[in-house]
Fold this sequence. Notes:
Helix content is about 20%, strand content about 30%. By secondary structure, it is of the alpha+beta class. β21 and β22 (about 345-350) form a beta hairpin. The two termini are about 35 Å apart.
Amino acid sequence: MPYQQLTASTDKPVLSWANHELGANETQMAKNVASLPFVYKHVALMPDVHLGKGALVGSVIATKDAVIPAAVGVDIGCFTGDTLIPLVDGKSYPIQKLAEQKSQIYIYSCTSTGKIVAASAIARLTRRQAPLVKVILDNGEEIRCTRDHQFMLRDGNYQEADTLEPGDSLMPFYSKTDKDGYTLIQQNYSGRWQKAQEINGNASNNIVKSDRLNSKKTYNHKVVKVIPLTEREDVYCLSVPEYNNFALSAGVFVHNCGMAAVKTPFNGTQLEGKLKKIRQDIESSIPVGFNQNKEIAKAVTNWQGWRDFKELHPGVKRLEDKAMKQMGSLGGGNHFIELCLDTENQVWLMLHSGSRHIGNMLAQCHIATGKELAKLADIKLPDLDLAYFVAGTPEFAAYWRDLQWAQNYARFNRDVMMERFKRIVEKHLAGGKPTKPLMSVNCHHNYAEKEVHFGEEVYVTRKGAVRAKEEDYGIIPGSMGAKSFIVKGKGNSHSYCSCSHGAGRTMSRTQAKKRFSVDDLVQQTQGIECRKDKGVIDEIPSAYKSIEEVMNQQADLVEVVATLKQVVCVKG
C-alpha cells in the first residue's frame, strides 16, 4: 500500500504505512520526533508501528548532523562490478560476472581466530547507481565500493569504507604461486604458507594450477587514502552464510551482505518424531532470558572485540565478565529461536537476538549523558528521551564508537547461537555431519547509519525497522504462532529504503498477561513445539498484529522470497 500522511500538524511530515489510525500517545510521540529541528524531510512509520521509548518502534528517522540514542548500528555496502574476487580454483573473477552466473561459488573467508578457510557464496547485484568511494591501499590496489561497506581490520573488527583513515591496518589476504604452479595462502594466525588444496578440503573438485600470481608482493595492507567519487555505478556483493566475510584480490577481507535465518538442505519429513528433543537440546545448549553460559566457549574468548572493551563508556567497565558469559545467549522478551518450514517443506533455522545486557547498559549510559547535556544547555525538548548528540562533539564520537561495538557484539552473538543451533539440527537430521547452508540472511533492526537519501548524506535511525534497499534481503517474523517472511527490498525512497521488522504489538505485555490464560496460549500455538506456560503469555499471538496485514501494507517496500511457518519455537 502507498503511505498516508498523518493529518496532525508537525514541523516535518509523518508518512505512515500502517493501516490504522494511531492512538493519542502514538500520535504525540510521532509529533515529538517530527518537531526536532535536525529531522530531515519526513519521518517514516512502518506497518508494525507501536509505542516505544522516545520514538515509536517501527519508525525510521533521518537526521542532519545529530543522532538520538533512545531512538536507536551498522549495515553492509557493496562493490563495483569490476572488483576481482579470488576463488578456490586459483583464479580471480569480476564480481559482476560471478553475479551473472547465479550459481554457488567457493571463496576464501577469515574466521574469528584469523584462520583462512574456504566457504561457499552467492554473488548478487545489490544496488543500482550507488554513490562510491575509492579506497587506496599501500600495495597500490584501488577498491571502489559504497561508502558504507565494511572492511575487516587487522584485529577482526569491521569499519565502514568512508570512516577508514590513512594508516588503518586491514586484515590481509596473502597469496602466491609456488614453483609447480599451485596457489599458496598465508594463514594470518600463524604466518604459515599453506597449499590452497589443504584449505579447500572438499569445497571444490576443480582445483587447478594457477596461471598467474594472485599478489605482486608482501605488504602491510594499510589504508593510504579514501577518496569520495562523483560517479555512480551498479554494485554487487557476496552472501557468505558460514563466515559473513570474503577476500578481495586486492588483498583484504570485507564483510558480506547480512534477526538471522539459514535455509538448510533438510526437508520436513526428516523432522518426524524429533521436534521435542530438538527443542530440549536447544534450551540446554543456548541460555535464555536472564541466564548466561556457565563456561565461556573458545570462539567467544577469541572474539577480537574484547580488545576494545576498555575503550567503552566507563559505566560498563565492570560488565566485561558478564558480557563474555552472555555471548551466545538468547535473552528475553520477543527474542526467539525457531525451526521453520517453507512452502516447499524445506527446513529453515531462524533466530532473533541482540547485544544483550551490555548493549542495553551502553545505551542507558549514553541516554543519561544526553539528558544531562540537554538540561545543562537548557534545551527544550518535547520528551527528554529525545535528547541528542551533535556530530563533531566528543559525546557524539563516544556514542558512535560504542554503538558500532555493540552492533558487532550483537552480530557475533547471533553467529555463535546459529552455529550451536545448526549443530543440534545436524545431530538429529544428519547424524552430526556438517552441512552447507543453501541461503543465509542476517539483518539489524535497531541501529543508526550514515546513508545518502534524496541526494544528501544523513544519519538514518531504524528503530524496529529493517533496511530494504533494492536487492537487500531481510527477515520479517510474525508472532510465535504465525508465519514469517524472507523478503527482498524494493528500495522505496519515501521509507528511506526500509520495511517493518515484524508484526508489531497490539497491547502491552502487562495487558496480555491480564487478558489471556495458559489455555488461550495452548490453543493459539497448536501444532508448535514450544513452551506453553504462564511465563510466555505476554508473547501470545493475539498480543501482536496480523502479520498478513502487515505484509499487505508494505507490498511497495518489499517482495516476499520465502514464506515460513515455525514448528519449534524457543522463547526467552
